[in-house]
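Students often ask why we bother encoding 3D structure as a string. The short answer is that it lets us treat folding as translation between two languages. Here is a chain of 443 residues written in the first language.
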Amino acid sequence: MDGNYHLTKCLDLIQEQLQGERSSSLTNKDFEILSEKNYDHTGILISYPTLRRLFGKVATSSQYKPQLETKNALALFVGFKDWDTFKRAHPLPQPAVPLETPGVAAETEGKASAHPKKAWPKALVLSTLIAVIIIIGVTAFFLLSYKPTIENISFTGKNTVGTVPLNTVFHYDIRKVQADSIILDFGTEGKKMVLPKNKQTVTMSYLIPGLYKAYVRADNKIIGQETIHAKSAGWMGIIYTDTDYFFLQDNTLVKEGVMRYLPAYKGGVPSNAYKPIKKADVVEFNNFEDFGVSGDNFIFETRLRVVLPDSGNYCYKAYIKVKGDNHPIRAAFVNKGCNTDALLQFGEIIQEGKFHDLALMGQSFTGWRTVRIEVKNKQGRLFLDNQLLYSISFQRSIGMIKGLSFRLREFGEVDYVRLYDGEKQLKYAEDFSANSPQEPLNQ
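And here it is in the second language, the structure alphabet:
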């Protein structure tokens, strides 16, 4: 009952934050929001299929139990440090104590009056109480003072930077670590394993470009970590569906001077290469490289648009992310009336449409729009077609820029991408034609 009770309780709280409705009414948009927020808080992606399985959208075995890291991420979403903290804050309901039968109670009372209980001697009561206090104190001391011997951990990664598919080799030595369980989390949802003490090497293949954090946890305490930068060697397109993902081939990703994914009947993808996307699925364009630009002082500019299918109007999203070593910068534009899905983040400052007034993020993107992100001295500014929308101050360093991403629901095009350093010197440009522009910033 323990696991089922707390998991159900946590999912109920998440539903209240998302919609205040039953899980049957949750849409892929809600799962996308939850997935993105968990990723930015924990560095671990909880995929759409996993979230759908947790909320009963996908048929699964009654024995299905999510990994601890997944539960930690769910607990973070509802405001708790980790899963154990959430469980302590929501103790199991106690079973009801049955009422006494009147006849039995009367009989007991009669016996009590006939044979009154003898009082314990005060000295015996006092000595027993002292003994109990000593036992509790000693037990608490050992429980609180116990921790894994982190000074005895050895954990390093080899081939942690490279182009996907990236085969990373982890070397470890945990023979002297005292813990009930030692788990290696590779930083990608669902990829984790118990480390055997009699081994010293583990390998992992990273297929999707990104910046990953691999952790070794001893009894849920982080005792070692490595950062993996899986590069893309240019732009890579990925389609995420309800149950899977697949990569776009280079000859379908860039065409006629734009990076795009369009339905076959609009001439975007040959019919033999086109895989239909269900409503609210997403296409993602990623470019993870060492751009040599500080995320604390830079200018990013792009021009893009959303292409709507013929299925009618619904809430679409144009999502842009600049990924730094430490924190991302994100901007999610939505069409008017769908501001709940809007998002704006500079460093540690996250503003969500559900809890903040992000009315200016509700924009039409069915035509070409130019987005510019500027950061200088921990001050972030977001422009749309040269008009300032938001200015936000933050404190924590973004770090060096390691990745650029677009996420569109569900079709769209990107015309160009430009990245300048703090001195307004052009460091990266791509217009998806034979010769990318190498021109100074024009403001």
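Translate back mentally: Confidence is low (pLDDT under 50) at residues 101-114, 145-151, 265-280, 437-443. Keep this in mind for the problem set.
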